[in-house]
Amino acid sequence: MPLRILRLQPILKVDSPCWEKTAGPPNSRAGSVLAVSSLSEASRRPALSGLARLAAPTTFALALPVLAALLLCLKLTLPLGPMYWDLVVFFDGAQRVLSGQIPSVDFFAPVGALGYWLFAAGLKLFPEAQPLLLAQWMLLVVTLPPLLPVLRSVETRSRCLAFALLVPFAVFQMLPMNVEQYSTYPSVDGYGIYNRQVAEVLYVLTTVLVFERRQRVLAFAIAWCVTALFFLKITGFISAGLLCAFAFAAGRIALRTALAALALFVAVLCGLEASLGLVSAYVGGILQLVAMNEGVLATRFLQAASIHFGIFGTALCLLAAVAAIGLRPALGDATDLLKRPRLSALAKLLDRDMVWLAVTLFVGLFFETQNTGGQAFILLWPILLHITVSATHLRARQAVLVITLVAATAMPPFVDVLGRFTRAIIGQMQYVDLPHTHLRNLGSVTQRREIIERAEKMNAIYTEFPETFAAIAAKDLLPTFTIYSELDFQAGWLMEIDEAVAGILAYEAANGVRFQTIMSLNFVNPFPYLLDRQAPLHIAIGADPSRAVPAPDGEELESVRAADLILYPTCPITTANIALRTIYAAGLEGRREVRISKCWIGYLKAERQSRRTQQNEGRASWTPGLLSNLGESWLKPTIQ
Question: For the whole model, what pTM was predicted?
Fold first, then answer.
């Protein structure tokens, strides 16, 4: 079953939503273009009526950004989900961008600059938008341009086929949900956003490679998607490179097309490097991350396969079925290649369903080795759709087997994402708004009243019994193994941030100071955005000390020393926050310690305090010695 564009002939009329399939011309040589006969047939078709145009897939695709823009103008809320604080990384990066900083050049980031640039632009356009929806929908400006010409081309032959490509794209692109589930309560997923973005671009790229044969469109789409993936997440870029390399070997991409796409990609990189110095800094950051996380790739292949076995396992069964059905012609093509080695014979051997499925499955698994959340394996959808259409040529039993396995692979994540989001929106009707005063649109979330109340009580316990949590941290443990995915922790953390902002404003008013540069010894730093201040240069954002915070050099430590206010969270005391304080200990020496709120300690530069403050607060200062004994550090009285 060769994987080629099928010539789909309408049954009753040009805009009929159904089709009959006939075998298309074989893709006999690398870089072959769409058959001239197919183009001429399309050009002779009469224009669609106005009603038919409104019902066209491209019309629905163009309606997506319009709908998104309208909804982003509204003050919407979503139910708070596990690890929701991952969203704050976008606020941190966007605030830095808006203040003039360049990602990777002026601050260390775990991923590329594109997400921060898009989110910064989104905040300017939609300052009151629900931020998770903004982070999800801003990617439409990346995914739609290469997808639209392909949809338009496909819909001229079959609107059903075009809709079959559009519907899963729309569901995964518009709904902020992962295929994994970390909470049984109805909620949305504020984590894995980078991974969802990459998965959605890979879906578009796979659609282009499978269903588009016009070489100019291919050159544009490949260059566009590969460049976007490079500046989203480097593992997505590598995955795209594997897909494109295979498509070239399979004869889908002409040499001139590959060179044109490469030239466009390199031109963008050269322009950004010449103007911003971005590319070299970004690559240097990637190398640092690789050095910090080396030696775990093999085990992560097993982990990714086991986490997504519901998709991966059924896809392997489908691969076995498709390979068994297509084995005889594949052996014939392999024999022909061995007898007369040539590029056209190699392309004919590779350009078939079973090879495309195997390669795409491997690429999807590779990408998931570096992820803890996202929309895993949605790039399989275009391949699965092609296999489904090709199955209509098979005998009845074979067709039933193949289509059943396709459905078993594709539908569970699709139905799960759609169902969980629907449940979250319906469940939110019984939720209450998160209480806050200073969180701006970061606080546009709701949750069960019981969870909000539990979060408030747990924050009080963290404050009253710090020695308990210091003892837990001293054993290198978290208060609970899954604390960051627990809804009450996320709600409590947001309320802690709200209290800390209030405390900072009160302290500034009472002491006649203004903290222009604020740093947080926590996973994320929302304070510059919430207070419209600056974040210190060169400091890592998304600060996971175990895998994403390199040892600071002299420039970073100098930036830490220059920060007006450094904040440290104590609700609860955790090993990660202690590790961050240890990493930046040299930049904290000589600072004065004040209690900003019940859950946050502030370390102040001496010159930033008023004379009255210095007289009232005594001579207490922070020293690295506090790190040697967690119990003494947290039992010692803190100046109020």
Answer: 0.88
